[in-house]
Amino acid sequence: MIPHPQRYGFQIADKRETPQTVADHETLMREGYVIFERLLDEAACAAMRAESARLIGGSGRNAFEGFRTQRVYSILAKTRIFDDLIDHPRLMALLDRVFEPNYLLSQAQIINIRPGEEAQALHFDDGFYKIPRPRPALGAAAIWAIDDFTAENGATEIIPRSHLWGSDRSPTREQTISCLMPAGSVVFFLGTLWHGGGANRSSRDRLAFTNQYCAPWLRQQENFFLEVPREMTRSLRPTIQSLMGYSIYPPFMGMVDSMHPKRVLDSPE
Ligand SMILES: O=C(O)CCC(=O)C(=O)O
């Protein structure tokens, strides 16, 4: 039984409709989150750690970003190493069931929580779409553990089933559980689920990559058209181009000169 009418009566792409997807989706809609363990092997995580070290610099600018947390934004313009996480088939299969076709990537970033960081304020990711709750999720997010997520190092904290709460309910830290998972795993949750980064009481960094999505008719957090040069966009695979916004929400949201925006990629500058 799906608690919220998350579906608006659209067709789900048949190609990703497997018993595994049905089970994942049931868990997601019941609990507000689902964890997939070890989707990445140690070699992949090691390569992502090395690439993150190359990109990381500076620290958070406010308490929400975390003064001891390092973030790298505009990922699509900076590295190709996370592309496979952004359109990972296990996530896309779920997104196919949560949103209408041509849902969008809203943002992607590296989050490195350093030792001594305090717990982040609890929040839900689609809260900036100011529509009262309870309501279907307008966004969804994945947080990939590139390092092991432990009780000491700042594993993401979530409140199971809080995606069902109305606007009148506020979270407390006591209601949270930690997403303890080995490196290479991912927690995927609805944009309505209350969560936050944990405190890092360990002596080592906690590296994560996060990719957030939104319904195809909403404004994305990142402006990929300005961030990613057109020449670079041309070299990306079609799924990523579509997630960036080179797609249409029928009949014409996203158009360029009354045509599909992908035509821009085929034209000279
Ligand atoms: O790093 C995490 O575990 C969660 C971060 C988060 O939710 C955010 O920055 O919005």
Question: What would you note in describing this structure?
Answer:
The chain has 269 residues and is an alpha+beta fold. The chain has one domain (17-220): Jelly Rolls. The protein has helices spanning 19-31, 42-55, 75-78, 83-86, 89-98, 224-227, 230-234, 238-244, 262-266, and strands at residues 33-36, 69-72, 104-113, 139-145, 157-158, 177-178, 186-190, 195-196, 206-214. Strands 1-7-4-9-3-2 form a six-stranded antiparallel β-sheet. A three-stranded antiparallel β-sheet has the order 6-5-8, with no helix packed on it. α1 (19-31) crosses α5. It starts with 18 loop residues before the first helix and ends with a helix. It binds 2-oxoglutaric acid (AKG). 2-oxoglutaric acid binds at residues 111, 120, 143, 156, 195-197, 208.
